[in-house]
Amino acid sequence: MPDYHERVRFDCSDADEFERGIAAGVEATGAGELIVLPTDTVYGIGADAFSPPAVRRMLAAKGRGRNMPPPVLVSAPSTMRALAVDVPAWASRMLEALWPGSLTVVCYQQPSLTWDLGETRGTVAIRMPDDERALALLKRTGPLAVSSANTTGASPAENVDDAESMFGDDVSVYLDGGSTAGSRPSTILDITSTTPRVLRDGGVELETLHTYNNTIEPYA
User: Residue 106: what are its φ and ψ, rounded to 5°?
Assistant: First the structure.
C-alpha cells in the first residue's frame, strides 16, 4: 500500500481502481489520515469519527475550530441506534423513508461514545448519503466525520481537482468520482427539542418533512 504521508488519487469510474481506492481509504482513515470522497451533494473531506486527532486534523485543514463540529456519515439507517438516543418514532420512520438522501439530522448522541467531534453539546449531526461510492467506503470504515471539501471562505468542491487544489498533501487519499450532481447542500433538521426545526434549507423540502411531523419549524 502507498505511504499515506504522500497523497494518492483513484479514479472511481474504473472498477479495479475504485476497489483499490476504497481499500486505500479504509487503511488511511484507520491510520488517522484524511480522505476526500464524492457524495450526492458536494465532495467531502473525511476522517475516522472515533479518532479525535484525525477530527482535529480535518478541522485544521479546513481552517475551522472546535466550535464548528463536522457531521457524521453512516451507511445504514440502523446505525442511528448505535450513535443516537431519544430519536422519536416519527423521525425513525422519516429516516427509513428518506435515507439515503440529502437530509442531515441533529440528535442527542449516545453518552457512551468515545469520540470528540468538537463543541457538540451532547448532540451529533448524522446523514446517510445517496452515493454508491460513499456508501461502499462507509460500509468498510464505519462512521466517518465528513465535512464539505473546502477551506473556510471557499466554495465546496464539486470535483476532485478543486478539492486537491485546496487541501494538497493535508489529504492522503482522493477518490475521484467526477463532477457531483450539484452544489445544493443537505437539509439540516434538529430533532433535539419538542418542536423540531430546520437549521438549513437543502435537498429535502419542508413540505416533505411535514408529511412525517407537521410541527417542524422552517429555517429562519
Answer: -95, 120
For 107-142, the pLDDT digits (tens) are: 999 999 989 999 999 999 999 999 999 999 999 999
Nearest 5°: CA angle at 54, between 107 and 24? Answer: 105
Pairing of strands 84-85, 103-109: antiparallel
Question: Residue 30: in which H helix or E strand, if any?
Answer: helix 15-30
* Domain residue limits, the chain: 8-210
CA distance 9 to 218: 40
Distance CA 78, CA 197 (A): 23
Say how many C-beta atoms besides its own lie within 10 A of residue 150's C-beta: 21
CATH 3.40.309.10 given to domain 8-210: no
**DSSP type of residue 111:** T
